[in-house]
Amino acid sequence: xxxxxxxxxxxxxxxxxxxxxxxxxxxxxxxxxxxxxxxxxxxxxxxxxxxxxxxxxxxxxxxxxxxxxxxxxxxxxxxxxxxxxxxxxxxxxxxxxxxxxxxxxxxxxxxxxxxxxxxxxxxxxxxxxxxxxxxxxxxxxxxxxxxxxxxxxxxxxxxxxxxxxxxxxxxxxxxxxxxxxxxxxxxxxxxxxxxxxxxxxxxxxxxxxxxxxxxxxxxxxxxxxxxxxxxxxxxxxxxxxxxxxxxxxxxxxxxxxxxxxxxxxxxxxxxxxxxxxxxxxxxxxxx
Amino acid sequence: xxxxxxxxxxxxxxxxxxxxxxxxxxxxxxxxxxxxxxxxxxxxxxxxxxxxxxxxxxxxxxxxxxxxxxxxxxxxxxxxxxxxxxxxxxxxxxxxxxxxxxxxxxxxxxxxxxxxxxxxxxxxxxxxxxxxxxxxxxxxxxxxxxxxxxxxxxxxxxxxxxxxxxxxxxxxxxxxxxxxxxxxxxxxxxxxxxxxxxxxxxxxxxxxxxxxxxxxxxxxxxxxxxxxxxxxxxxxxxxxxxxxxxxxxxxxxxxxxxxxxxxxxxxxxxxxxxxxxxxxxxxxxxxxxxxxxxxxxxxxxxxxxxxxxxxxxxxxxxxxxxxxxxxxxxxxxxxxxxxxxxxxxxxxxxxxxxxxxxxxxxxxxxxxxxxxxxxxxx
Lengths: 287, 378
Fold this sequence. Notes:
The complex is a heterodimer. By secondary structure, chain A is α/β, with parallel strands linked by helices. Chain A has helices at residues 6-22, 38-53, 72-75, 88-98, 110-116, 118-127, 172-179, 192-204, 218-224, 230-240, 244-247, 272-284; strands at 60-64, 79-82, 103-109, 131-137, 140-141, 147-148, 183-188, 209-214, 241-243, 259-266. Chain A is globular and about 65 Å long. Helices cover 36% and strands 21% of the residues of chain B. The A-B interface holds A 24, 26-28, 57-59, 61, 63, 73-74, 77-84, 87, 89-95, 97-99, 101-102, 119-120, 122-123, 276, 279-280, 283-284 and B 25-26, 28, 47-48, 50, 52, 54, 56-58, 60-74, 76, 90-91, 94, 220-224, 226-232, 237-240.
């Protein structure tokens, strides 16, 4: 039996008040997410990050494509742009470039960002446009009922890989860094304070920032691969995660099957809108 | 008043100049023949007026960026040709559903597939209306000269802003790449329409409110009116819905905000239709040949007239029926295997004969071909 003191109760209340402040009023609720889905944990981390930074709701534009995680902007009281499958970064590029003073956050999943949206993903990284992309990676297409995605591990099961996946998986962080993103990090839905911190830094960063969040789809990926319920899957993330500093001292064999978490890459490349503004000033200056 | 400057302009450049006249401040596109000069012109001109130009990774990204920029408050457009338009149609449907004003220029070339990149065609006419999935009420306009390309581009922006909807300009390769000496309108000479912005408090604001004319005021992101913009079927606040009593009104609004105000959209030209017994009906580059053919045949003493459609979608049902009411026969000239002709058949009474003159070999219809067709049907 747990003893809950009044002090911890007050703290809990304060914490949930922060969340309620950012949930959209009216009839957006309930969410479409299954009980125990990691999307709620990620949403909470994003809210806390935005609250930490003191951003106004009006200056945040949350853009998404199609999929379970892409429903998030509908539930939050920011400017919401819920777009077509895979195209969130195209729309977000238009928003950011048109109004560079706005904070643009893209919520996407592994199918949305890396399969149908793969082209937009690498080119947004290449431009280093100031957009924060939160890629919730649950290794499967959840909304359509458990099909294999570009991050479904080799040999694992989905409704379209009933005999084991013959394909190999993308590493979104390696892909983003190679494509030119200036901020790349990975978190999990188990490590919530670290995730909040990583997202806070990502939003503060000027340039393209990617935060990959390892998340659980116990309903499909977990069930089809006999990984247990949400709690089992979260515990698995805990066991398999290695902070970057520790990982750097480990051999590639030891790192097999592990999630390296933390801020993986950061550089100070120039940002697309900034450079365009400089070019524009030059053009307008004549000569 | 000083004499207007005479300038030599290419059709695709006239698009750029017309768009800037109408207030264009954002262009996103992907190179494709025969439309590329539109992108090149925007890349040159937009930075000079604090406008934004971006070359995207493909046509899907281009139209997505254009929609995002329009929702953020900038007048936005893209230009492409058939294969690119095919890639854009899903997001054109998104713009229609989310009531986002954008302009898409389709400099038509021969199809199907990669087809004839450098040859003329009008075979995307039906696609402009039916390209995107779901019920759709499109607005599309078609100029036939360089001057009209300028004015129709301005009109396309005005219609997009007035009706909060995507508007397609159906150009074709011949007009896009032709050069003519023109005297372009001075600032203030043509009307420029801007979208209506909300004046209510953010608490009262409904992004897709059922207003008397069915067009809802539209804020820009950052203006303080936070709402949900989604391609899912939604209620007046933007929230997704599965309720029949909310679904049908949304679809009704999308269609009727346009079809109930067709008079504001229709633009046709008619020559010698008062006593015409036979009429040419055409749009785009064919109209130039039709006008000349009409002159030739009139001089020979035949009662022939011509109708040119600037507004192709919504189809000018009433106008065509009215203009052709005294005709015995009409000849529909098109650079395709028959698209608009079926609409003409639909709107004319059965006692008026409808004849087709179609060319789909990558070449234009000449005035003499129209004259010959007339001799054949008389």
